[in-house]
What does this fold into?
Amino acid sequence: MAALAVTVTISLLWAGLGGSHRPGASSVTGSDAALPAAPTPALTIGRPEPLRSSGFLSRWTSLRTTALARVRPAASAGVVAELRPTTPEGTANVLAVLRARPDAAGALWVKVRLPILPNGRVGWVRRQAVGAYQTANTHFVVDRRGLRATLYRDGKAVFNAPVGVGTASWPTPAGEFLVRSELTRYASPFYGPVAFGTSARSAVLTDWPAGGFVGIHGTSEPQLLPGRVSHGCIRMRNPDILRLAELMPVGTPLTIQ
It folds into this structure.
């Protein structure tokens, strides 16, 4: 009986009833030939293209882990700085992305603007140390001579307000920086209802907590604005800083002229 069962099973498989086919036989049956053609895919993935920044679009990312920034995109290159994934305020440490390049072994590196002194330094970190790229179409410009700040979106001014900047003894540094956090837990009469942390650092207040990072915040003395009245931070009237908070996202490039 066992031999008979095996024979019947083999016969059924060869007949196509068991999902297999006799060696050398056609794999298309009459029922298969009657099936409709496969539909066109709903999503077609195109050829990869390099991500470029337009005149009004910039890129930024955040650190996933502690990383070493090096002078060149190579593991053997000199170290510029050690970067941590969080800021002194406990927010994500975001960095402006300038370009990317593989090293000789094929590992990808990212050139970023560094939040260290002297201001304006750049370095290369491994791509795996940072998260996904984010984009910003905004740009915040502070004019120290004219004592005004302007926010641009896609190259068009969408916000303008008078500001207070640093005095001659405690100047607000000039250069290219990044808005890297928006803070409300420091709301107070002195700092106003909201503050933005930036990657700019005071060159003279290095002994301050966290190393003297420059902030953008409100004030309890709006009558002093515009003016040179701060230790380097950028002060705004409280209604203005609240309006700015509605328009300016984290990751916005900051130019201090």
Notes: The two ends are 95 Å apart (CA to CA). DSSP finds three helices and 17 strands in the chain. Residues 2-14 form the longest helix (13 residues).
